[in-house]
Amino acid sequence: MALQAAALLPSALSVHKEGKSNASLKDTVFFGASLSDHLKFDSNPTARTKMEFSQGKLSIGPIRAQTAVTTPSMNQAAQEGKKTLRKGNVLITGASSGLGLATAKALAETGKWHVIMGCRNFLKAEKAAKAVGIAKENYTVMHLDLASLDSVRQFVDNFRRSGKPLDVVVCNAAVYLPTAKEPTFTAEGFELSVGTNHLGHFLLSRLLLDDLKQSDYPSRRLIIVGSITGNTNTLAGNVPPKANLGDLRGLAGGLNGINSSSMIDGGEFDGAKAYKDSKVCNMLTMQEFHRRYHEETGIAFASLYPGCIATTGLFREHIPLFRLLFPPFQKYITKGYVSEEEAGKRLAQVRRTSKNNKYKFTNTVNHDMCTQ
Ligand code: NDP
Ligand code: PMR
C-alpha cells in the first residue's frame, strides 16, 4: 500500500514565479545538485529532474512518499532471495543524541547490525554509545560534520578506506535555530540549517549511492528523517512560519546572504522556516532518488517522520518556556508525542518487505506520511 503524502507541500510544489527570472535557476533544480561547484556530481545532464519552469510556474510534479509501492526489478528480486550471513553495516548521521542514538541502540541490540555513527563530536558520540549500553563490537564512531562539504567528502574517503561494505544509510542529523535573529553559515557559506540538514546530506547520499549499489545485502536502504512541520497538508505544517521553497531563487543564488538571500525562497531570514524548508528538501530528495535510482539499483529510498520527540536536543536553541511547555503540549493536547526510544525503534524498522513482490513500510508511525 502506498504511503501518503510523505512530502506533500503543495505550496512549494506549484508556486507562482514572482518578479524576474533568475538565469541560473534551472541549475538548482535537484536541490543542490548543481548549486555550485561544491555540489556538482551528476555527470549525466539527461538525468536531471523534471522540475522545471513552465508558464511562470515551478512544477515539480506530485510529491508522494518514496515508499510508494513499486515492483522490484528482476535483479532485485534475486537479491531479496539471497541469504547474507554477515552483519549489515548501517551509517547513522547525528547518532550522538536523540533519535539517532536511540536508532543506533535499537539496531545494535538486534545483533544484526554494525552501526557507524557519523558524528561531529567524536568524544560525545563515544560517551553516548557507552551511556546507552551499545556493545563496543557493534559500533564505530567516525567523524562527520555535515556543515562542511569537505568533511562530508573526507568522511566518504575514510569510510571507503575502512573496506567495510555499506548497506543502509540513515540521514538523521539536523539543527533547528528558531530564535536566531541573523543567519549563520556552513563552511562553504550556505545558511546553516539548509546547509546541514539538506545540502550536507544531499552530498553524502549522492556519494554513498555508489557504495550502496555495491553492497550485496538483501535490503539496501537510504532513509532521510523528514518532519510533519514541512507538510502543509497537516495542522502541524500550518503553524507559521510555513515551509515554502518559492521559486528557489535564494538557493540558486547560493544561500549566502550576500549575493542572495539566505532563504531558499529568497525571503528574509527565519530560522524556523529554514528548518522546515530543509525538511521539505530532504523529503523531495528521497522522492527524486526513488524516481531516478530505485528501478536501476533496487535500493529503497524513503523519508520518515518519526512522531514528535519533544524532549530531544533539537529544541536546545528554543526559549526555556517553549522547552518547558512543548513536551506536555505534545503529550496531552496534540497526542503527537513519542519517546526517543519509541521513535528510535520506528526508524530502525523502516524497511521494505518483499510480500507480493511489492515494497511496503512496516513501521507504524502515526501520521499520514507513514500510514500503510
Ligand atoms: P538532536 O538534537 O538530539 O539530534 C541531532 C543530531 O544531529 C545530534 O547528534 C547532533 O550532533 C547532530 N548534528 C547537528 N549538526 C551536525 C553536523 N553539522 N554534523 C553532524 N551532526 C550534526 O535532535 P533529534 O534527535 O530530535 O533530531 C534527529 C532528527 O529527527 C532530525 O533530523 C530532526 O529534524 C528529526 N525530527 C525530530 C523531531 C522531534 O520532535 N525531535 C520531529 C521530526 C523530525 P551533536 O550531538 O554534536 O549536537
Ligand atoms: Mg507543533 C496536531 C498536531 C501537532 C503536531 C503533531 C505537532 C508536531 N504540532 C502540532 C500542532 C501545533 N504545534 C499547534 C496547534 C501549535 C500552535 C500552538 C504548534 C506549535 C509549535 C511550535 C511553536 N509546534 C512546533 C513548534 C516548534 O518550534 C516545533 C517545530 O516546528 O520545529 C521545527 C514544533 C513541532 N510541532 C510538531 C513537531 C513534530 C514539532 C517539531 C518538528 C521537528 O522537530 O521537526
Automatic annotation (TrEMBL):
One GO cellular component term: chloroplast
Record's function text: Phototransformation of protochlorophyllide (Pchlide) to chlorophyllide (Chlide).
GO BP annotations listed: chlorophyll biosynthetic process; photosynthesis
Keywords: Chlorophyll biosynthesis, Chloroplast, NADP, Oxidoreductase, Photosynthesis, Plastid, Transit peptide
Claim: Nucleotide-binding is one of the keywords in the record: no
Name assigned to this protein: NADPH-protochlorophyllide oxidoreductase
Enzyme class at the top of the EC tree: oxidoreductase
Domain of life of the organism encoding this protein: Eukaryota
GO MF annotation, one: protochlorophyllide reductase activity
Associated pathway: Porphyrin-containing compound metabolism; chlorophyll biosynthesis
InterPro entries on file: NAD(P)-bd_dom_sf, Prochl_reduct, SDR_fam
Family under the similarity heading: Belongs to the short-chain dehydrogenases/reductases (SDR) family. POR subfamily.
Subcellular location: Plastid, Chloroplast
